[in-house]
Amino acid sequence: MTRSILILGGTTDARLLAGKLAEDSGFRILLSMAGRTRDPVKQPVPTRTGGFGGSAGLAEFIRNEKFDILVDATHPFAARISRNAAEAALLADTPLIALDRPAWRQQQGDRWQRVMTTHDAVTVLGTAPRHVFLALGRQELLPFEMAPQHSYLVRSVDPVEPPLKLPDIRYITARGPFVLDDEIAMLNDNGIEIVVSKNSGGNASYGKIEAARQLGIPVIMIERPERPDVATVPDIDTALAAIRHQFSLAEKRGE
Q1: Helix %, strand %, coil % of the chain (to 5)
Q2: 130 alpha carbon, distance to own chain's centre
Q3: How many angstroms separate the CA atoms of 144 and 122, rounded?
Q4: I want to staple 217 with a disulfide (CB 3.0 to 4.6 A). Which of 48, 186, 212, 237 is the partner?
């Protein structure tokens, strides 16, 4: 019997998980992407792009397409999508596997100031002009227009369009993973005095955090939003085991 898996993606973890599942011919897999990235990485399984119309729409899609398992492998900051996934799984009576990679932990030598929102980060930057590295997505950048006294370096996967209305800003378009030595050089070459980052976790973008530690540069760390109260798995291997366990249970029930 072919088992069907719907993966809500948008992360490297989702792509890698889909690739490992695709190695098993007994699975029908669909990877759903929000569509915010203009030039997404090639995926190893069939994909769809766009929303579902909230939790009710997602539940209807699961039922109509007869998916056996829903996997939430979205970004740790995609809290609304994760809430919809949790509600949809209940509505559709479908097992949910939520992949939530661990957040970065502050280490000795890190100079972090934790904030909850991007607006808080703007406030913490203060009034004195500083050279700031913004390692944020396009959607999080607009509040920094309220602090035009700073000099900004922005790195994002897609070009920032329209550009921010700031007098001193430069853009880098790049996709991780980023090597530590390159991150150190980038911070040094641009005279960066402070880094603004989301606590995304994972290895692909951790280089800038380690580079800031080695250079003694402070980091304004935006903490993760509250996620739905569901059981989670921390990595791809555990997610694979959880998926296979769910199918094993279904087989024992004769489903």
Answers
A1: 35, 20, 45
A2: 27
A3: 6
A4: 212
pTM of the predicted protein model = 0.89
Q: Rounded distance, CA 80 to CA 66, Å? A: 24
Looking at residue 204, its pLDDT comes to 85
Angle, helices 12-22/236-252, rounded to nearest 10 degrees: 50
Alpha-carbon distance of 47 to 185, in angstroms, equals 37
Q: How many CB atoms lie within 10 A of CB 62?
A: 23
Read off the pLDDT of residues 43-78 as tens digits, 9 standing for 90 and up: 889 999 999 999 999 999 999 999 999 999 999 999
Residues 173, 157 contacting (CB under 8 angstroms)? yes
pLDDT tens, residue by residue, 115-129: 999 999 999 999 999
Whole-angstrom distance, CA of residue 16 vs CA of residue 41: 11
Q: What one-letter code names the amino acid at 181?
A: D
For residue 43, report the phi and psi dihedrals to the nearest 5 degrees: -100, 150
Scanning 109-216, the segments in alpha helix (DSSP H) are 118-125, 180-189, 207-215
Handedness of CA 75, 76, 78, 81 (dihedral sign): positive
151 token code pair: 């000099």
Cβ-contact 200, 78 below 8 angstroms:
no
